[in-house]
Amino acid sequence: MGFRSILTRPFAKIIARSIDRWAADAVDRQANTLHQLVAKAANTAFGRDHGFSEIHDYEDFKKAVPIRDYEDLKHYVERIKNGESDVLWPGKPAYFAKTSGTTSGVKYIPMSKESTPLHFGTARNAVFNYFARTGKGQWMDGKMIFLSGSPELDEIAGIPTGRLSGISNHLVPGWLRTNQLPSWKTNCVEDWEEKLELIVGETKDADMRLISGIPPWVQMYYERLLERTGKRTIREIFPNYSVFVYGGVNFEPYRAKLEELVGGPVDSLETYPASEGFIAFQDRFPSEGLLLNADAGMFFEFVPAEEIFNDNPTRLWLKDVEIGVNYALILHTNAGLWGYNIGDTVQFVSKNPYRIVVSGRTKHFISAFGEHVIGKEVEEALLPVANAAGIRIVEFTVAPQVTPPEGGLPYHEWLVEFDNIPADLSAFELEVDAAMREQNIYYEDLITGNILRTLRIKPLKRDAFREYMKSQGKLGGQNKVPRLSNDRKIADALE
After folding, report:
1. H-run or E-run covering 352
2. Tens digits of per-residue pLDDT, 79-89?
3. What is the rounded CA–CA span in Å between residue 262 and residue 235?
């Protein structure tokens, strides 16, 4: 173990103990957070509009603050963009994080002086906790890479504005920046393919030990490294590579391919960051689920997913949740997001402590026939079948085929980019379909009721998804391919 890792080990242990304390006290921490948020924002425009001074408990809060999406909060954000202070949170935001919206176009998510440090702070705590739990801190003594967006920021009403991953570059402390790659200049390159070439050039001869990024874009990085160096595996290039940090998508669809490229397994650390707040992170190794970040300036609510678009949905806070139920995640934050439907669905796998898995998106599902299939279900249907058959999946998405051009019953069409196509695709389809019927009883009923025929898999050409993302201006960075859709916009674009 090197000097840097020896020096930081005691700090890592302190962080791990702190995590254990608040995780054991999560319900009380959430109750205190709600009280503090309401008190702090009482004199903001939003607080006055919603009678914060009259809120005394959670029941009052639910009556006063409705669930919203970005469109419902946009008029408050526009007031901030026009220079007004004390709108959603006291003062003005420290940053605006720009994200791509499906119906709203670009969204501007406020980050306050209170919330901003918690983004980097939670990321730091997650990796230091990994060090404390596993004893593996060698990554501190070499180079690290964070595949991210550009750190160059615009300004709106004097507020620095950019992608969250780019903003995060500004939060990296000096002691860590000396270990960080790529260079600031390279990180500022907007075009992903040009940027990738520069990243490979800067890192191929470095002692890379920690790599962080979204799996499909890390895969591109690995593949380009191997092309440039002529090596067979990433381990030959980076013999000290020890931990992969990721978030935003499920790692499992990519695991087999990434491990093949690396030349074997590598420790991984899963996180759940968002522009709205750092929601959860893996706290045990191994562990099922991610520890809900219950003491980080956010109050969480949970709505049964099937009710999220109802006028008066059931609203629960942490003490009332149940294991295995699919909930839409609602945030109230110390940056001024109130009743914010982040668009993700989660399931609790543990309540002692409170750990979640991300199960899908509220707008990414298939329910063309009342089945309400979610992302977690399609992944858990496809991947075990593929793994058992030695089939590696590069990427996939699922869409309904309501009026098949060939006639006959409708079906779910799975558009799959294979690394190696099954020798008997029809048999593979039937196995995946059987697994899907186990995952979703409504899908099973539709098949047995002769409403749907069994699913069909359409193999796509190499790099089909990368070409699609490029055509949408979403190549690289934090962009992800939706696992499923209730329409055929993505499917038709891929075909």
Report:
1. none
2. 999 999 999 99
3. 6
